[in-house]
Amino acid sequence: MRIWLMSFSDTEKSVVNLIFDGGSYEVDSGRLKTFKGAMNKENVHLVDINICNAKRILRWEKLAPGPHVILLAFSLHDGEFTEQTKEILENLEFLGEKFWNHIFVVFTEGNCSINEYTGAQRSVLEWLLEKCGGKYYISGSKPETTKRRELSDRIDKMICTNNSMHLVLPGISDGASQSPSDILR
């Protein structure tokens, strides 16, 4: 299973620990930080991608085939859901028309809850939850094992809904000329 973890900051360690059984995994810190381990006894390859640089990163890294799941990680802190956040998320739609079918949002603990958002921030949060089809998980105060099992079950359900298909990535370029092999593809 291939998972991309996208967030605005460095890897949310709490999210990585929720994915892998027992919180154990191998880390490869090449040009992109990748993690390998097991989730529900299935091999998982997780790639950490900074959401603000996603297009540039993906243009150069050529991570094909695409992921089965894209986890968008947010902390529930005041100020997280702005019009700029919405614009950045809309810009990820370059990944294709099925992009939102593969999105699962994970909220880590913060100093507020979803229900406490008001005004423009609430509007952006509601937009996000609508775009991803209501697929989200809030990491709360449950024991780690329970959280891990709940999250992995929801991810598995989403993958089944997508007929176990990975996200088919469109050709990603910056508009510059392409090589003959890229044109033939």
From TrEMBL:
* Annotated ranges, domain AIG1-type G: 62-144
Alphabetized GO MF terms: GTP binding
Instruction: Tell me the InterPro entries matching this sequence.
Output: G_AIG1 (IPR006703), GIMA/IAN/Toc (IPR045058), P-loop_NTPase (IPR027417)
For this entry, the protein name equals AIG1-type G domain-containing protein
Q: Which family is it part of?
A: Belongs to the TRAFAC class TrmE-Era-EngA-EngB-Septin-like GTPase superfamily. AIG1/Toc34/Toc159-like paraseptin GTPase family. IAN subfamily.
| One family name in Pfam for this protein | AIG1
| Keyword set, alphabetical order | GTP-binding, Nucleotide-binding
| Highest taxon, organism lineage | Eukaryota
Ranked from the top, the taxonomy reads: Eukaryota, Metazoa, Chordata, Craniata, Vertebrata
